[in-house]
């Protein structure tokens, strides 16, 4: 009986450990210039790939903004609900081989995501080689 309970407790704790050590979830984005929180992005998995969409804009004046600088299907679409992370795949501890959209400029960049502990996510957008880009740190929303 003790062994059964021990195994059950270990199984449950491993399930919770796996959930907190994943990029899946809601993340608060931080403005590079002001250091203030900008939005909440929900990262999810679909068909084995990672995607992220804006689910909340924290500046009430910008909640109804549209992506005027975007091209293609995103042109003039509301930023709220916009899928900005597209098609990343897991490669060891990193997620890469996908794209990230900057809705402010409408530019599309290559992207990589790396967990920094359980509650921080390093999001790198770059052109060409990852050396030429910038990294933002997003915080997990609890």
UniProtKB/TrEMBL annotation:
Highest taxon of source: Bacteria
Pfam families to which the protein is assigned, alphabetical: DUF2147 (PF09917)
Record InterPro entries: DUF2147
Domain DUF2147: 25-140
Protein name: DUF2147 domain-containing protein
Species of provenance: Flavobacterium bomense
């Amino acid at each position: 009986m003790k062994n059964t309970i021990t195994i059950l407790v270990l199984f449950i704790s491993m399930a919770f450990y796996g959930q907190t050590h994943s990029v899946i979830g809601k993340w608060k984005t931080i403005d590079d210039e002001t250091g203030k929180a900008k939005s909440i992005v929900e990262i999810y998995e679909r068909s084995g790939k990672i995607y992220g969409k804006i689910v909340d804009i924290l500046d009430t004046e910008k909640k109804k903004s549209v992506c005027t600088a975007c091209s293609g299907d995103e042109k003039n679409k509301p930023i709220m609900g916009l899928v900005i992370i597209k098609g990343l795949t897991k490669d060891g501890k990193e997620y890469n081989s996908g794209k990230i959209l900057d809705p402010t400029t409408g530019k599309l960049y290559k992207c990589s995501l790396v967990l920094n502990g359980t509650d921080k996510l390093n999001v790198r957008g770059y052109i060409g080689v990852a050396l030429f880009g910038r990294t933002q740190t997003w915080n997990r929303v609890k």
